[in-house]
């Protein structure tokens, strides 16, 4: 009668019995890493846009406030993408014949919207509101990073649920004074925990039990 | 004999023989795990509804939202802005060379000295003609909005030396000329709402009540640049001399 199992099966059997835990752990770890990687989340991947618009130039060099274009960030869930007219406020005069801006001028002349590519796109089952975050002391750069240094905008956060929860569990580690919301250079002070707790109190930010309820974001 | 058997066993491919080596099971499990990953992204991510400004294939112009009909007034805006010239939303694109139409309602109780209105949209000249009381809070709000929307051209102090002007935009007049100091508030409101010269209108970017707050702040700038020491209240004078905070 021929042998059913090869000799090496003994080793394989031993290794898989004792190594099962490690192999399983490795698979879970790999899945976790892949799921959080830029490949899946698109974080740190700059998006090409139809017009070579540089936030670095407009915010960093020219010092234009975020709210000049994103007008509804304090009042609405949506921060607002400016209409072509906002571009033309300045570019009717500046670089008025530049090839880079041909798409903008065409859009203005023909009343056709510029098709910008969306960079931050939350899943549709998430309810997100800009105005409440701004009101409660979450600054732009906390979630969007140093946009004033980005020629092309990219996500700096995974936008995954565990990222949201890092702040919803411990808001005091991230909140800043309201007059610093639009300051791109703001860094947490050394005593952020103390300052943050004061701000949480002052701005009546709910405790982490409330902030991590399912219905806070999924409604 | 056994040697030949061995080598034959090694060459066997997965599942081809009756006797599958155990790593085939392992590979099978791994494949199943891979399939599980496919279910991580579902249609729930992108539901069949439009987000603001999302592109649409339904309408010819590619917009998911319809353009406002000319002359549309937002719900509630008439009541909220009853003291102000009617907002002209969607009245036209680019510069509108008309004066603001509509009537500042001067008959409302609580309205702050808006009498003597001679023409629709025209407000009497003077520093105090605002549709609301001008408080420190109004000025703070006006300063914030001014710094957002106006400083790129008009500069932080209103001399017309903003960053965009330094980049080559035609220089706007300084607020501190005799002509603009004596211009009525209605002129400023009209310019913000309808534009003036190379300045396009800011009706979409600055809401009516913020326009008044901005005007109040411009007035404060004008006072600040022409103030004498006598104008400073006595209780603030000491702070000024010591270089301390005036607030």
Task: Write a structural description.
The complex is a heterodimer of chains A (219) and B (247). Chain A has 219 residues and is mostly helical. Chain A folds into 3 domains: 9-36; 55-81 and 119-217, no CATH class; 83-115, no CATH class. Chain A is built from 12 helices and no strands. Chain B is elongated, with a radius of gyration of 34 Å. Chain B has a domain at 77-107 and 114-228: Orthogonal Bundle (Cytochrome Bc1 Complex, Chain D, domain 2), CATH 1.10.760. Chain B has 247 residues and is mostly helical. Chain B contains 10 helices and no strands. At the A-B interface, α1 and α5 of A face α1, α2 and α4 of B.
Write the layout of secondary structure elements.
The complex is a heterodimer of chains A (about 220) and B (about 250).
Chain A: H1 9-36, H2 38-41, H3 55-61, H4 66-69, H5 84-91, H6 102-110, H7 130-135, H8 140-144, H9 161-169, H10 192-202, H11 208-211, H12 214-217
Helix pairs in contact in A: 5-6
Chain B: H1 2-11, H2 22-38, H3 77-80, H4 136-149, H5 151-154, H6 163-166, H7 178-181, H8 185-194, H9 208-225, H10 234-242
